[in-house]
Amino acid sequence: MAKLEKNLTEGSVVSQLLRFAIPFILSNLIQSLYNVADMYIVGQYNQSIGISAVNSGGQVTFIMTNIVVGLCAGATVIIGQHMGTNNKKAIRETISTLLITLVIVGIVLMVAMTILATPILGWINTPADAFQGAREYLTITIAGTLFIFGYNALSAIMRGMGDSKTPLVFVTIACVVNVILDLVFVGYFKMAARGAAIATVIAQALSMILCIIYLKKNDFAFDFKLSSFKFYKDRLQTLLRIGIPTSVQNVITNFSFLVLTALVNSYGTEASAALGVVGKFNGFAILPAIAMSASVSAMVAQNIGAGMYDRAKHTMHIGTIIGVSMSLVIFVFAQLFPAQILEFFNDEDPAMITYGVEYMRSFSFDYIFAPLFFGVVGIITGAGHTKFSLVSNILSALALRVPFALLFGSVLDMGMFGIGLGAPIASFGSLLLAFWYYKSGRWMKGTAITSEN
Q1: Fewer CB near the terminus (10 Å): N or C of the chain?
Q2: What would the pLDDT profile of 32-67 be if each residue is shown by its tens digit?
Q3: Residue 70 pLDDT
Q4: pLDDT, position 4
Q5: pLDDT in tens, 327-340
Q6: Long-range CB contacts (within 8 A, 24+) of 366-369
Q7: How far, in Å, CA of 195 to CA of 421, rounded?
Q8: Does residue 368 carry a pLDDT above 50?
């Protein structure tokens, strides 16, 4: 097990943070290429209709993914704090309980979403000409739920133990396979969104299987033998206490964007496609801030477990500076070249590009405020105070993002530019709340494993 563990409580904070964060950023960047590759390749062969289908179906799948991402983020914090106290028994029990829980949750969600796929796509106003493709994309990707859950769980566990490099290797392999299969199924066999979905599921399965094989051969904390899968009620309670608020906040965030998708879809296929393209660019643009925040959380968790609060604070300060610096460069790029970004996906639809430029001009201001928020919330999450993050996210998504997008976009008739304003306004409000909570010092009380043995 020693080969896969990394002690994040010693050495230079800057070098430790960068060594941990860079592979994490690259992993998330490459993982984001799954859906972007689907959208890009489908867009080349099926134009705006294909892009709209992948965007609408992918939005629903993304909500499911973020349920497990929240639980896994909780596992990263818990395992990280146990690493700080060198409690290997607790680490094994937490891993076992997490994997069993995710299998059960995955099966339930697969059944539920298979039944609800068509009504949900209707509710978000999926354009009629893209509806069939969106339904096929969603139905097929739902079948790969357990693979998505499995890979995300194993990646989160390894990050909690200080290893962010191993997940990068396997997600890279899977992404290359995904792109190749996209070209085969979508380009050669003309299977459109359906082919892109099949390629994605196969690639996700591969990444999970490779990850398990590697871990079994390298003295991982958990051996994956059937007899080792045991359920521990107390570990589940801690996982749920820390993970559920993060899962709920992720779902709420994506629900708010689903509401915006429904609003934009009412404008037609070109606007829907534009929203999808900007959304995919945003997935890349916000990655440095999100990955840096998660890296801060992982380092903070180990340092808090070891009682090193000053080092935890220093980690947050450094992480925020790095995240903001990278995001400002992306903001400038988005403001200078919005049309070129959209043309990369589809340069034969002027209406789609016009809609997208309007939306990106306002939405990209989020790249100024979001990194500041993610930096501050990184230390709060690392301490295990995920309930605060939930409250902050509810404020951001439901009290700010959706109402202001509707106000500027529909009520004041500012169109796509107005809808895009909802994002930076929401991030700014969340930033103010997070900064107040950090300065209050409440995050230092009642950490994730306080009540555990």
Answers
A1: C
A2: 766 677 777 887 888 778 878 887 787 778 777 777
A3: 73
A4: 57
A5: 999 999 999 999 99
A6: 366/282, 366/286, 366/423, 366/424, 366/427, 367/285, 367/286, 367/289, 367/327, 367/328, 367/330, 367/331, 367/334, 368/327, 368/328, 368/331, 368/424, 369/424, 369/427, 369/428, 369/431
A7: 35
A8: yes
- Rounded to an integer, the average pLDDT of 70-92 is 82
Tokens 């941990």 — which residue?
Answer: 20
Predicted local distance difference test score (pLDDT) of residue 66: 73
Query: Cα 114 to the chain's mean position, in Å?
Result: 22
3-class SS string, 127-196: CHHHHHHHHHHHHHHHHCHHHHHHHHHHHHHHHHCCCCHHHHHHHHHHHHHHHHHHHHHHHHCCCHHHHH
How much of the chain, in percent, has pLDDT values that exceed 90? Answer: 28
How distant, in Å, are the alpha carbons of 90, 139, 189, 192 from that of 53?
A: 44, 12, 18, 9
Task: In whole angstroms, give the CA distance from residue 236 to residue 301.
Answer: 18
Q: Which pLDDT belongs to residue 330?
A: 93
Q: How far apart are the first and last CA of the chain?
A: 22
Instruction: Please state, in angstroms and rounded to a whole number, the distance separating the CA atoms of residues 250 and 320.
Output: 21
- The Cα 213–Cα 208 span in angstroms is 9
Structure tokens at 297: 């959380």
Reading phi first (left if > 0) and then psi (alpha if -120 to 50, else beta), residue 357 is in alpha
